[in-house]
Amino acid sequence: MEPKKNPKADLRKNSALYFVLGLFVVMLLVFIAFEWKTYDKVADYDISLNVEDALDEEVPMTEQIKTPPPPPPPAAPEVIEVVEDEEEVEETVIESTETSQEEEIIEVEDVEVEEDDIDVDVPFAVIEDVPVFPGCEGASDKRACFNEMMQKHIIKNFRYPEIAQEMGVQGRVSVMFTIQKDGSIGNIRYRGPDKNLEAEALRIIQKLPKMTPGKQRGRAVRVPFSIPIVFKLQ
Questions:
Q1: Which of 23, 26, 68, 211 qualifies as a cystine partner to 183, CB 3.0-4.6 A?
Q2: C-alpha span between 142 and 136 (Å, rounded)
Q3: DSSP per residue over 95-143, as a string?
Q4: Does residue 102 fall inside a structural domain?
Q5: Which segments cross the bilayer (predicted)?
Q6: Mean pLDDT of the chain
């Protein structure tokens, strides 16, 4: 059987040549695309034409400032006539306080200077003669006796406030007072955790008896004293 197609019309003939030519054309276009350059448009006009010649401009002349003339010199002062004061001035005579040999010198007797009664506070720990608590007059160590009698007084008069017991309040109240120069108790100060405990501590100190005042260098002085009162629930 004979073929129907013409052997000259075979499309596969020379296909390799066409492929190479096509590849060459594509590579050439890619190369031209990479090497293509563009430039900005540059103005061709002359820049110097827009610059005006500043030398041709006329510069105005500066007006001359006229300074005012200096002021005239001041007139010469008038001659002042000195008029003598006709009033007479009395001279003050200062007498000398120095004594002459003829005057007698009176001797002044020695004047006794009374010492001012200055109020001072001498702490209990350093005072020479401590205040004497009633009952300690014959004690050899009045300082130790004073502290012992203070403890007995607190224990004897101690009473725990009922409202503080119900509330479960307890603690220590620091009390400070002053034994005055007449032996009385004054200037009572206190500080504690509860006002009911403070009131009880104040009541105990106010019941202290009158004492023999403390002395410093033989003179009665005020003596500050502090003591803690402990309130503790059993």
A1: 211
A2: 6
A3: PP-PPPTTSPPPPPPPPPPPPP----B--TTT-SBPPBPTT-TT-S-HH
A4: no
A5: 16-34
A6: 77
- Residues 19, 21, 24, 29, CA torsion sign: negative
- State mean pLDDT over 177-190: 93
> Could you tell me the CATH number of the domain that includes residue 221?
3.30.1150.10
Neighbours of 205 (CB within 10 A): 22
Distances, alpha carbon 97 to alpha carbons 53, 93, 103, 105, 187, in Å? 104, 12, 12, 13, 55
Q: What is the DSSP letter of 224?
A: E
Residue in the block written with tokens 């004690």: 139
**15 within domain boundaries:** no
Structural domain including 182 reads 142-231
- Establish if 179 belongs to a structural domain: yes
- How many domains, the chain? 1
Q: Provide the Cα torsion 149, 155, 159, 165; round to 10°.
A: 140
Is position 16 within any domain?
no
pLDDT one-digit tens code per residue, 140-181: 999 999 999 999 999 999 999 999 998 999 999 999 999 999
Contact between residue 223 and residue 214 where contact means Cβ atoms under 8 Å apart: yes
The H or E element that residue 187 is part of is strand 185-191
